[in-house]
Each structure stands twice: as structure tokens, then as C-alpha cells.
Design a protein that fits this description.
Elements lengths: L14 H32 L16 H29 L7 E8 L2 E5 L5 E3 L1 E5 L3 E8 L4 E5 L4 E5 L5 E6 L4 E7 L11 E7 L1 H10 L6 H11 L3 H4 L17 E3 L5 E3 L2 H9 L22 H19 L1
Helix pairs in contact: 1-2, 4-7, 6-7
């Protein structure tokens, strides 16, 4: 078909290296399988019944060939494994200065919330050349966030946060899909990733209208749900002070030490008795069923802002 691209566009920072790794795996696999099949057919034809071939050296060992073939195969596949492991570690270790965007998958749409409070449905605007970290949750079933042009895909499982980061270096508009069958209208659960030059992206953020930031919205919910009555300065119940908590270690009653990340804050709201901080009674009620994924993102953003203030 005229105009049909032979190879998908590469818009992500690691897309080229991922394609190179994939091509290398295909080439090595095809060559290895092809050589084995060729030798199998060759020996089957050469030493078939009735063939006048020399069979006087059947018990001799060809150590040089066997050791050489085994060593060469081992080095090639170990090299590919090391290459893949190194790429995997870089893909799942986001930079500290990455822009954080909360994404919620639900039947059948993607909802995004930017730090400044801007919200999108089935659209995601990001700046070019800047690392972007997505904190994703599912409201109902398993979804899978997939952008082919970036070569990134991450399953989103209900009841937990999933994280994905990328850096889009090529401005443009790229398809966004759900790559996991999630129900009747799964095929329609898609959208667009728009990569913009940094100045244009800043203008787009301004054009979305004045609204409270995600952290400010979370602070309003923090008071509306009565959280400040315990975690505030004049709390009536002895509860942990949340200033400076985010990102640091938290000692638990069972002796474990966990990091106060998005997962910990979310579970502390929905499953408060699963990880009780050392020195405190398990008196906090669960807000499961009362706080939706969108509001959870706002509350997490608020706790994150307290952590940054405490650190500074």
C-alpha cells in the first residue's frame, strides 16, 4: 500500500535501542535455527539408507567443533541477555526530575491529571525532550497502557499503582492504545499522545484555564474527609505527622521498613491496618469505597507536596 510505513515511527528516547535489540534477537534466532535445520537436513540426506557414504568414524569425537559451537552460542546469547537486562533497568528507573502525571484507566477510557490540575480524557500532552513518569491505576479491570511509537507498554492492575516513564524526543501526535482485552468496547479504548516543544507545551498548560493544582485539590479533600483532624497540628488523635514523610523510610510495627511512595500513601488510605507505623495505634478507618482513583491521585499529590516542603 502506498504510504504505508515499513517500520513504525520511533519517537521515544529508547525506541531505537529497543528496535536494535529486537532485530538482533530475530537475526540470531533465525541464523541459529536455520543452521540447525540445515545441518539436520544435510546429515539426513547424506547418511540416508542406501547412500554410499563413509561411516567408519562414527565413534570419534569432534571436540573442537562441539566446544566452539557451544562457546560461540553461549557468548552470543549471554551478550543479548546482558544487553536486554541493562535496557530493562534503564527503562524502569525514572530520572528524579521527571514530570509526574497520574493516569486512571477505566472502561473504556484513559483519564490523565497533570500536576497543575489540568485534566484530559483519551488525550495526553507531554513536553518533548523531558522525562515523563506516569503513575497509573485501574478503576475496574486490567488495562494496558501502550504507545507503539515510544515502544512502551505497562499493564495497569486494579488495587495498586503501576509506574511507567518515557522520554519522547520527536514532536508529533501518536496513537495510544489499551493492549489488554478489558471488555465489550476494548477496541475503542484508545487515544492520542501529543508531544510538544517545551514552549508550546507551557502555552498549552496555560490555555487550559485557571484551576487549582493537583496538590491544592488534594489539600481540599484532605480537610473534607477529616484527615486534618488527626494528621493536622491540632489533631484530636495521635497520628503521624505527614510533613516530610513522602519519599523517606517508615518503620512499621512488625519490624519492617518501607518507603513512603505512592503505593504506601494509597494503601494507608484504603488499607490502613496493613502497614501500621511503629509507635501508633491502628485506629485509622479505611476509606475504601469512599475515595475514587481520581481523588486518590489528588491526595497522593498533596502528601508528595508536604514531603518536598519538609525536605527543603
Amino acid at each position: 500500500m502506498r504510504g504505508f510505513p515499513v517500520w513504525p515511527v520511533e519517537a521515544g528516547h529508547y525506541a531505537g535501542e529497543m528496535d536494535a535489540l529486537f532485530i538482533a534477537l530475530v537475526i540470531v534466532t533465525v541464523l541459529t535455527a536455520g543452521f540447525v535445520c540445515f545441518m539436520l537436513i544435510f546429515f539426513a540426506a547424506r547418511y540416508r539408507v542406501g547412500r554410499d557414504a563413509d561411516r567408519s568414524h562414527t565413534i570419534e569425537k569432534t571436540w573442537k567443533w562441539e566446544v566452539g559451537w557451544t562457546t560461540a552460542s553461549l557468548l552470543i546469547f549471554v551478550g543479548l541477555a546482558v544487553w536486554g537486562a541493562d535496557l530493562y533497568l534503564r527503562l524502569y528507573q525514572p530520572p528524579k526530575n521527571a514530570v509526574q502525571i497520574f493516569v486512571v484507566g477505566k472502561q473504556w477510557m484513559w483519564k490523565a491529571q497533570h500536576p497543575g490540575g489540568q485534566r484530559e480524557i483519551n488525550e495526553l500532552h507531554v513536553p518533548a525532550g523531558r522525562a515523563v513518569r506516569l503513575v497509573m491505576a485501574s478503576q475496574d479491570t486490567i488495562h494496558s497502557f501502550y504507545v507503539p511509537a515510544l515502544r512502551v507498554k505497562q499493564d495497569v492492575v486494579p488495587g495498586r499503582y503501576e509506574s511507567l516513564w518515557f522520554q519522547a524526543d520527536r514532536p508529533g501526535r501518536y496513537h495510544l492504545f489499551c493492549a489488554e482485552y478489558c471488555g465489550t468496547d476494548h477496541a475503542r479504548m484508545g487515544g492520542w499522545l501529543t508531544v510538544m516543544e517545551p514552549r508550546a507545551f507551557a502555552g498549552w498548560l496555560r490555555d487550559q484555564g485557571g484551576q487549582p493544582s493537583l496538590a491544592a485539590q488534594g489539600e481540599q479533600l484532605f480537610h473534607a474527609f477529616g484527615c486534618s483532624g488527626c494528621h493536622g497540628p491540632g489533631g484530636t488523635v495521635r497520628a503521624p505527622d505527614l510533613n516530610g514523610v513522602y519519599g523517606g523510610p517508615v518503620a512499621l510495627q512488625d519490624g519492617r521498613v518501607v518507603t513512603a511512595d505512592e503505593r504506601y500513601v494509597r494503601d494507608s488510605i484504603l488499607l490502613p491496618k496493613s502497614e501500621v507505623a511503629a509507635g501508633y495505634d491502628p485506629v485509622m478507618p479505611s476509606f475504601a469505597g469512599q475515595v475514587g482513583e481520581d481523588d486518590l491521585a489528588r491526595l497522593v499529590a498533596y502528601v508528595q507536596s508536604l514531603g518536598r516542603k519538609g525536605a527543603s
